[in-house]
Design brief:
The chain has about 250 residues and is of the alpha/beta class. It has helices at about 45-55, 75-85, 105-110, 120-130, 150-160, 180-195, 205-210, 230-235, 240-245, and strands at about 10-15, 20-30, 35-40, 60-65, 70, 85-90, 165-170, 200, 215-220, 225-230. The structure holds adenosine-5'-diphosphate and magnesium ion.
Length: about 250
């Protein structure tokens, strides 16, 4: 992973919740346009790192920049630029889709939070739905009318509304059946190719990371213990924990 020109850059990132430190000095570099897998057991700090990158958890110390923006900056202009640069797609689509709002309302709000208008944003809403291959008549429907995979694709469309440069996908396929997972993964690969998106792909599924990502960072108990190209790390893991992880892949 290169330092120069990184679109995501973390140096000695520490995060504490109360007295408990959960990230212990994480360094991470993501090159523009690349797909980086972030792997590690449950509780290792992957989601916390994801939240730091989108500005929803503040670093306790360290430097974190996304698209040149300091994620800790509190001024409105920086918050807005960060929001437009990086979007988090969570595992559970319901955490970004309000069950009471139609898909049209959800997308209109993502497009223009100040004056959301389904009618006014209709062309852009259609474009977003086309992009994730959801029929346009979804505009008047509610999230529960869709399958899990469709709902996840709608959540992705919502994330795309601001035309971000970076997408952080946190276990987005973990709750889905294998065939549905494949569809979502294909979509993410397509978005990366067509939109030039940079992807941080968080998953505990190493087989999926192997297919989707070019680089991988391995987290353990709040530290990145190893990182490098997927090919190198998978072929010749240096850290004992990475070896252990790879040995557990069926
Ligand atoms: P992962 O996504 O790798 O499973 P998380 O980032 O969700 O890991 O959690 C890392 C650690 O931080 C866990 O021990 C978790 O319990 C703790 N943690 C996460 N969020 C909070 C929070 N808001 N308050 C207190 N502890 C938290
Ligand atoms: Mg998590």
């Amino acid at each position: 992973m290169t330092d120069v020109g990184s679109i995501v850059r973390a140096r000695d990132l520490r995060v504490s919740f109360g007295r408990t430190e959960v990230l212990h000095g994480v360094d991470l570099d993501v090159a523009p346009g690349s797909a980086v897998g972030l792997v590690g057991e449950s509780g290792s700090g992957k989601s916390t790192l994801a939240k730091v990158l989108v500005g929803s958890v503040a670093p306790t110390s360290g430097v974190v920049e996304v698209a040149g923006i300091d994620v800790g900056a509190a001024d409105r202009a920086s918050r807005r630029r960060l929001h437009r640069s990086v979007q988090l797609i969570p595992q559970d689509p319901y955490s970004s889709l309000n069950p009471r709002r139609t898909i049209g309302q959800a997308l209109a709000e993502a497009i223009d939070p100040v004056r959301p208008s389904v009618r006014g944003s209709r062309a852009r809403i259609d474009e977003l739905l086309d992009r994730v291959r959801i029929p346009r008549d979804a505009v008047g429907r509610h999230p529960h009318e869709f399958s899990g995979g469709q709902r996840q694709r709608i959540a992705i469309a919502r994330g795309l509304a601001v035309e971000p440069r970076v997408l952080v996908a946190d276990e987005v396929t973990s709750a889905l059946d294998v065939s549905v997972q494949a569809e979502v993964l294909r979509l993410l690969a397509e978005l990366r190719r067509d939109l030039g998106l940079t992807m941080l792909f968080i998953s505990h599924n190493l087989a999926v990371v192997n297919v989707v990502c070019d680089e991988v960072a391995v987290m353990r108990a709040g530290d990145v213990v190893e990182s490098g190209s997927v090919r190198e790390v998978f072929a010749a893991p240096r850290h004992p924990y990475t070896r252990e992880l790879l040995a557990s892949v069926p």
